[in-house]
Every structure is written in structure tokens, then in C-alpha cells.
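FAQ

Q: What does a record look like?
A: Structure on top, sequence underneath. For example:
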């Protein structure tokens, strides 16, 4: 019997992210000096801070390599980070071994063909709204938000709602004005 979306969400302890098209809108901008520039959504970042605050783990597996990804990952305390990896399944397995978690406890958010093997292997496969059609059909959940525009935050809210953590966090903010 297939699991419901809520059942899948209740198991999730690890969030694994692609970068281009998921953590960013997917555009690649180069400055005159050749340095790469990426645009990150602030609510995705605050969602990841809340994710960490409730005791969850996160990781990045991306096909491209960029210094700014290292900077953003460090800023959000995302670890490990695999860059320059077009074959994403092996790094995914390494993350599971390192964390002691199972594939069923992992959510992967992707947008393009290289993400499919991990999406087929994890407990909750999420496609951003503007993912390619083949990725959309493999997803257990498709975000309303496109990549780089709040899709990660939306996924975090969904999972934490199902686990009963989100409303507690919101109430804490309302009453104490605390940080993530």
C-alpha cells in the first residue's frame, strides 16, 4: 500500500537540496571579473534555520561547483555539501551513512534529470513548481513556489506541519518574538 503524503512527511529527518533551480532560480550570472553570482531567497534561509532549530539535518548535492554555494551552506550550517557531482545517488548514500538515517527519512528537492535517481530512492521526493516535466511526474509533492522563490520554505512548512512542529514554532514567535 502506498504511503500518503502526510505519512511520508512524518518520517523526514533529513532535507537534501539541489542548488541551481532549487535553492536558486536557476539562472547563472557572471560578473565582469568572471565570478559567479547566485540569488538566494531569504525565506528559504529562515526556513532552513527553523529546520535546524527543531533538530533536523540538511545537506546539498549539486552538479555545479561554486564558491558562493560554500558560503551560503556555511551561513545556514548545511553540512555536508557535495559539489560538481552529476551522479547524485552515491553522495546521497554517503550522507545516509554519515547521518545514520535511512532513505525513508530523507526528503530530496530537485528540478532536473540528474535529480531523478535520488528522488526515486528517498522517502519524500519533492519537485519545485518549475521543474522539468519528467521530474514533476516522479515527485510525491510538487511545490506551488518555483525554485529559488520559496520552494524550500514551502517544503519545510509542509513537513513540519505534518510532524506537529510548525505551529509550535509559530506560537513561540508570536509569544516571545524569538529567533529561528
Amino acid at each position: 500500500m502506498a504511503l500518503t503524503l502526510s505519512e511520508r512527511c512524518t518520517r523526514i529527518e533529513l532535507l537534501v537540496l539541489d542548488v541551481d533551480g532549487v535553492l536558486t532560480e536557476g539562472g547563472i550570472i557572471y560578473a565582469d571579473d568572471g565570478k559567479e553570482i547566485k540569488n538566494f531567497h531569504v525565506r528559504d534561509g529562515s526556513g532552513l534555520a527553523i529546520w535546524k532549530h527543531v533538530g533536523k539535518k540538511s545537506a546539498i548535492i549539486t552538479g555545479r561547483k561554486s564558491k558562493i554555494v560554500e558560503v551560503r551552506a556555511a551561513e545556514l550550517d548545511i553540512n555536508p555539501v557535495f559539489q560538481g557531482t552529476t551522479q547524485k545517488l552515491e553522495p546521497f548514500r554517503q550522507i545516509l551513512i554519515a547521518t545514520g538515517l535511512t532513505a525513508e527519512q530523507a526528503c530530496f528537492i530537485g528540478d532536473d534529470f540528474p535529480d531523478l535517481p535520488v528522488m526515486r530512492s528517498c522517502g519524500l521526493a519533492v519537485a519545485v513548481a518549475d521543474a522539468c516535466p519528467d521530474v514533476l511526474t516522479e515527485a510525491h509533492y510538487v511545490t506551488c513556489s518555483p525554485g529559488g522563490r520559496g520552494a524550500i520554505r514551502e517544503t519545510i512548512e509542509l513537513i513540519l506541519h505534518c510532524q506537529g512542529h510548525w505551529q509550535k514554532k509559530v506560537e513561540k514567535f508570536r509569544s516571545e518574538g524569538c529567533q529561528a
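Q: Is there anything notable about this one?
A: The two ends are 37 Å apart (CA to CA).
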